[in-house]
Amino acid sequence: VQLQASGGGLVRSGDSLRLSCAASGRSFSDSAMGWFRQAPGKEREFVASISWSGMITNYADSVKGRFTIRRDKDKNIMSLEMSSLKPEETGVYFCAAGGHPYGYSRRPDEYEFWGQGTLVTVSS
């Protein structure tokens, strides 16, 4: 079972970036999925989540209106479209699966499966 995050890179403040998370080894169609980020020296924090059906999404207050989470259950892929990025959003972005099926889980320990992370660097 593997979650593979990709799409990270170096962007400037205000730019947009799209992250993807591809699942393999099993279907996560019955699981919620989410994105977390971890800045250097800081704890992993919740960014966004999506329910098993894809119909319910949840966002951290700091990213509402700028980030959009989606999933394609047929392709077993989840994405995070990020716009108006800020330097303080620099960090490793992780995708995860599990937790509450409606995507209400916001703590890392509520998710069972994790990807390896992709680095996003936002320069000022």
Category by helix and strand content: mainly beta
Overall form: globular
**Helical coverage, percent range:** under 10%
Biggest sheet descriptor: 7 strands, mixed
Helical element count? 0
Taking pLDDT < 50 over at least 5 consecutive residues as the criterion, the unreliable ranges are none
What string gives the helices and strands in order?
EEEEEEEEEEE
Radius of gyration from the alpha-carbon trace, in angstroms:
13 Å
Strand content: over 45%
* Nearest-integer average pLDDT: 95
- CA-to-CA gap between the ends? 37 Å
Quantity of strands, as a count: 11
Search tags:
124 residues, mainly beta, seven-stranded mixed sheet, four-stranded antiparallel sheet, 50% strand, globular
Describe this structure in words.
With 124 residues, the protein is mainly beta. It contains no helices and 11 strands. It has strands at 2-6, 9-12, 17-24, 33-38, 45-50, 57-59, 67-72, 77-82, 91-98, 111-114, 118-123.
Q: Would you kindly provide a brief summary of this structure?
A:
The chain is mainly beta.
Secondary structure blueprint with pairings:
Layout: E1 2-6, E2 9-12, E3 17-24, E4 33-38, E5 45-50, E6 57-59, E7 67-72, E8 77-82, E9 91-98, E10 111-114, E11 118-123
Parallel strand pairs: 2-11
Antiparallel strand pairs: 1-3, 3-8, 4-5, 4-9, 5-6, 7-8, 9-10, 9-11
